[in-house]
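Per reviewer request, we include the raw input and output of the structure prediction for the construct analysed in the revised manuscript.
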Amino acid sequence: METLIVGILALGIVAVRLRALGVPVRVATRNAESAARLKASGLRVTGVGGSLTIEVSQVAAVDEYSTRDTFDLVVLATKAAEAIEVALRLLELLGPGGTLAPIQNGGVPQMLTGRLGDNRVLGGLSNLGATMTAPGVYEQRNAGHLLIGEVAGGESERTERVRQWLGRGVEVRVTPNIRGAVRSKLLLNCSVTTLGAIAGRTMRDYIASEDGRELFDRTYDEALSVALASGARPERMNVDPVPPNWSGRTVPSEAHDEWLCQILNSYGDVKPSMLQDFEQGRITEIDFINGYVVNLGRQFGVPTPANAAVAETVCSITCRKISPDPTLLGRILQAIRGENERVPPIRDGGKEWRWRPQ
């Protein structure tokens, strides 16, 4: 399959491992400057799965690809907001029967399906933990996988073809319930990734504190309640998406501790991608993670005070009004505690404001 991978963030490891095996994959970057750097430096992966370094000659800015460059498969691995913006441009690069496979957080596959049609879009998400330590240099932190599936549900020959092709470089799994899998990934993004970014720590570090543990439970409980209210059937990934004895709220128990340990074994030592966004001055995906949960909560009448306060805090960090710090987790808890879990507005410099989509 003629394949183009658009974006070289954490999923750059997919391009490296495929190219190392001789699989013909081309790469598209945001601009010509990024493409020039990659040509000069190459791509390198270390960590889980072994070390690899490859030269990158077939790389160019996405705008430099023309309709003469047609592909059977375009893997869209940019940030969620960029994926929405660039999708129509990439549609022009698909050959007859070609497939666009967005690998993003939140509801990006469903959004793109609504615009482009399910015959063009294949849903996907990444369970690979990797940190880009420098442009084109990645440290893989877990032996994760890609998960793909038809957005409309069910099985298809297309998903199996893509699985076999990309599976030459990384593990790829197919699910007939990609919508449920996206919801399950969202649960972890809301609690593992965002809270780690706010604290400036890995999950293993922040969950050791009483505040970190409580905020994890509150954020996860809300996101799961919203997912179930929306009619989604969360898909089991590394763990069961529904904690043991869960009844709308987390029930402390030995079984719950064991469930949490399973999450730690997979994600506990991964540097949050949102923290890397803070450090690099990039726009975060908060609108597609905790912000997405807040909006769905309003739609389905599910209160989401923890996720709203978390989203507000991320916006403050993005605007450089505050910096990542573990003490922020306690401040968020203080903001959401109170009679009937009412959420007081967060005040910044005397100005009252609430979270809104960026």
